[in-house]
Amino acid sequence: MILPIVAYGDPVLRKEAEPITQDYPKLDELIQNMYDTMYAAFGVGLAAPQIGLPIRLFLVDASPFSEDEDLTSEEQQQLKDFKRTFINAQILEEDGDEWAFSEGCLSIPDIREDVFRKSKIKIQYQDEAFKTHIEEFDGLVARVIQHEYDHIEGILFTDKLSSLKKRLIKGKLANISKGKISVDYRMRFPAQKKKR
């Protein structure tokens, strides 16, 4: 089932998400709905706060990046096969040189800005079977994970921009929170929620 994506301005996007246990209600169904929602919006990652749930759950499918011709065949292969569900994730280390990449977000449509992030991460998480993993990632995979991880920490990519860039997009952000934007996927805007 495709769920509406919560728009910028909703308080759920600013909450530090809570860990969940194996008996979280209908978890398998929720994860499948999140994948359906992400694919319907042509995203490469989606975090539970983006569908209104302040829980430590996000998913990543980096395969769309595998078609980038600027990447080596090894990088393309790594991205093509990368589909993962992260439950109760904790980034243990961020390392390497910071590099800029133009990021966007399904909750903040039509805004893309260069964000600087470290190139390597070490992360601990649980998969759908609640098996614990500690893994290291780098490059675009690390970046997508960092972006989604920020969501479960209540952080948005726009928080990482310079004060000048923030001022330049302030009007666009205000319009998004009011629903004054046209997108080709389902969204829920803060203003709509209050009217109910």
Any overview of this molecule?
This protein is 30% helix and 31% strand. It is built from 5 helices and 7 strands, in the order βαββαβββααβα. The protein is globular. The relative contact order is 0.20.
Order of helices and strands: EHEEHEEEHHEH
Radius of gyration: 16 Å
Catalogue the unreliable spans.
none
Q: By helix and strand content, what is the structural category?
A: alpha+beta
CATH architecture: Alpha-Beta Complex
Count of alpha and pi helical runs: 5
CATH topology title: Peptide Deformylase
What is the number of domains?
Answer: 1
Outline type:
globular
Q: Whole-Å distance between the termini?
A: 22 Å
- Strand element count: 7
Q: Largest sheet, described in full?
A: 5 strands, antiparallel
**Order of the strands making up the biggest sheet:** 2-3-4-5-6
Q: Into which percent range does the helicity of residues fall?
A: 25-40%
Mean of residue pLDDT values: 93
Q: Could you give me the name of the CATH homologous superfamily? A: Peptide deformylase
**CATH level 1 name:** Alpha Beta
Strand content: 25-35%
Pfam family, one: Pep_deformylase
GO molecular function, one term: peptide deformylase activity
Enzyme class: hydrolase
Protein name: Peptide deformylase
Which helices and strands appear, and what pairs or packs with what?
Elements: E1 5-6, H1 27-40, E2 45-47, E3 57-61, H2 73-80, E4 83-105, E5 108-126, E6 132-138, H3 139-152, H4 163-178, E7 187-188, H5 190-195
Parallel strand pairs: 1-7
Antiparallel strand pairs: 2-3, 3-4, 4-5, 5-6
Family: Belongs to the polypeptide deformylase family.
Enzyme class: hydrolase
Function: Removes the formyl group from the N-terminal Met of newly synthesized proteins. Requires at least a dipeptide for an efficient rate of reaction. N-terminal L-methionine is a prerequisite for activity but the enzyme has broad specificity at other positions.
